[in-house]
Amino acid sequence: MVVFTEHALLKLNQRKIKKEFVLKTLETPDHTAMSPSGRIVAFKKFSKLYPKVIYKRERHNIIVVTQHWVEKM
User: Fold this and answer.
1) Could you read off the pLDDT of 1-46 as tens digits, one per residue?
2) What is d(CA 73, CA 9) in angstroms, rounded to the nearest whole number?
3) φ, ψ for residue 71 (rounded to 5)?
4) What is the C-alpha to C-alpha distance for residues 21 and 31, in angstroms, rounded to an integer?
5) Are 25 and 35 in contact (CB under 8 A)?
6) Is the Cα torsion angle 22, 27, 29, 32 positive or negative in sign?
7) Is 58 domain-assigned?
């Protein structure tokens, strides 16, 4: 199950990112990497931008911490 933190939900609205973009990025990312803090960073290209989705795994859940648009991976 995908769970959004309160911070992630707030940033969805502020940054005008649709939840479906985040879910598609998690399902089939173009690229993933580990952050220095041990979280997973996923990217997927939509038009000219990539949503950068930062999340962690807890048991059987994916916890979305935050997301924002970037021009490059």
Assistant:
1) 999 999 999 999 999 999 999 999 999 999 999 999 999 999 999 9
2) 22
3) -90, -25
4) 15
5) no
6) positive
7) no
Residue 27 in contact with residue 36, Cβ under 8 Å? no
**What phi, psi does 70 have (nearest 5°)?**
-135, 155
Residue 39 lies in a domain: yes
CA distances from 45 to 6, 37, 38, 59, 67 (A): 25, 24, 23, 28, 14
Instruction: Give the structural domain span for 20.
Output: 2-50+65-70
Q: Residue 45 domain-assigned?
A: yes
Give the pair of three-digit tokens for residue 22.
């985040």
Strand, helix or coil at 67? strand
Instruction: Please say whether the beta carbons of 34 and 18 come within 8 A.
Output: no
- The total number of structural domains that make up the chain: 1
